[in-house]
Amino acid sequence: MAKPNKWTLLRKRVIWILILLLVPPFILFFSGTGQAPPGRRRGSAGTLFGIAVPWEAYERQEAWVRRKVTDRVSGLSSGLVDQLVQQQIWRELLLLAEAKRQRLRVDDQELAASICRIPAFQQDGRFRPDYYYGYLRATGMGPQDFEGFLRHDLLIERLVDSVKASVALSDEDVRAAYEAAHERLRGLLFFFDPSSHTEEAEAAMTEEELRAYYGAHLEEIRIPDEINVEYAGASREDLTRREPPSDEELNAFYAEHEAEFLREDGTLKPLDEVREEVRRRVMDQKTRKALTVLALDLDEDLRAQRSFEEIAQTRALARRASGPVPIGTPWLPEGLPPDETQAVETLPEGAMSGVIETGQGVYIARVTQRLAARLPPLDEVRAEIRDRLIRLRAQDAARKAAGTLRARLNERRSAGLRFEEAFLAVGADPARAVSFTRTGAIDPIGAVPAVNTAAFGAPLGELTEVLETPGGFVVIRPEERLPADASKFAEVKDSVRQETLTRHQDRRVEEWLKDLEARANIQKFVEPPSAAGQ
Question: CB–CB of 534/328 below 8 Å?
Fold first, then answer.
């Protein structure tokens, strides 16, 4: 069953997680254009600190941010990308405005040094000007455009670094962080597994309950618009398997690039010593060339209005199918490249896409079927509803069992019994002896930070509230705090200092950004991304 409500919650979570990932400092380098879209609008896109943001500035920043976002994260629907891009545009414009207000600058020497450090423009750790200018030619960007955007990213980095620099740690702070991170809690854990209540829940299920659940969850059960997609093409992996480099090609590449395989003393490394690097570079050249040729061939086929079947057969392309795929699903089924689904989502049934070039391959795709949103009848989803109700019933039973045990133990304790006596009196299943830190995993529940926090926050000898975990419910009785081993502090002091500093800096930047956004009083005149495709 489709669950629109779940996707809504997931989209919100994804947006905020990705914004945190993309908060400066970051400098990304990739293929694409940073030029502003044609047909600029007049007026302003919004205001920052009461000052208008021209459409031209907004659109230029949008092009740059969109390429950074799409190259940093993949597999997202176009709707989610649009939301993330728009929020990140305003954050970067805000940070640039603040950098200007603080009169921060990046001089030409710093800019040149940054360009030389970009891995895409290096070979064996050395800057290659031909790589740089080749990149500019391939993307259609002039040096002035690229270096202007890069200068802005460096300004943002400098601004955020200045905020981080305001954070200081004392030796006492570092020691306290070490002690908190390595202090252990020893206690008893009561685990309540929902699976032990499955048979009971299954036996109690009735037809009336199935019908009642169906009627109360129609929107959750409703299946959204979907498409079936067929695609054909070649990936880098396909080409690597199909045409591995020959010994002749390896020897030729090695001979042509001998200067790149010299030792520090000037002697030439033998081919056997660098064979894997040579193989990788030859294969990279071959696949890039093959994908470029394939893209041109497919474009020619589409211009000639050849059918999907004819193109796939003529070009010896493997045909693959996937679906039904919900329109706008944030992550797509395994095997279906995200770029392809987003490229065909709006096509009518039977229509083909243009040539789709991704970082990993070249494809064409078509929609073989469009399925309108519908409400499936009860009989179609009966098994799913039944399984869900059984699972919910079993979870409720496990939660209730945990609460009952906790209440009975506390009742006996209030009557004056020691914990061991109360435990025997209620006839509870054996508890597990556990020992864990504030952030470490706990057997058998794994890593559930909320459980660690609750256990460390409970008084020794008392029971925590009933705590939910992915696998069931737990109640913990902390019995003893075991202090961190002071003798090992010196060994890890430097790493603890860096980890603690990074954590404090991130928190400081987050607080500073919230304050900056409030002071900027951002007004946006840009329409929010359409819900279509989300």
Answer: yes
